[in-house]
Write a structure and sequence with these properties.
By secondary structure, the chain is mainly beta. It contains one helix and six strands, in the order ββαββββ.
Amino acid sequence: MMLSTDTGKLNQRIMIQRNSVTTDDIGNQTTEWSDFHSCWAAVHGVSGREYWQAREQHEENTVNFKIRYCKKLKELGTTDFRIKYGNKIYDITSVDNIQFADSLINIKAVERK
């Protein structure tokens, strides 16, 4: 079976940010977000069954970001990463390396309130 490389238009700039925790001399921990990877993405809201599933979980502001794969994104996950798109922040809920082909990644994320 041939992998479809139809990405839509990767015409929206996003910034993937990484979480890091630092500890000071007396043990206080501080969480900081730093820029990890900037890339072009196709950005789409969810629709159909995905929309209703998101709504059931009170995640109405769910967005799909489709980006090109690169080796740097191999460690991309749902706990230590988020997406900054425009002036909004999105928490990543799933990362799908489509058909494990190392070609495209579909990231589902929910807008942080």
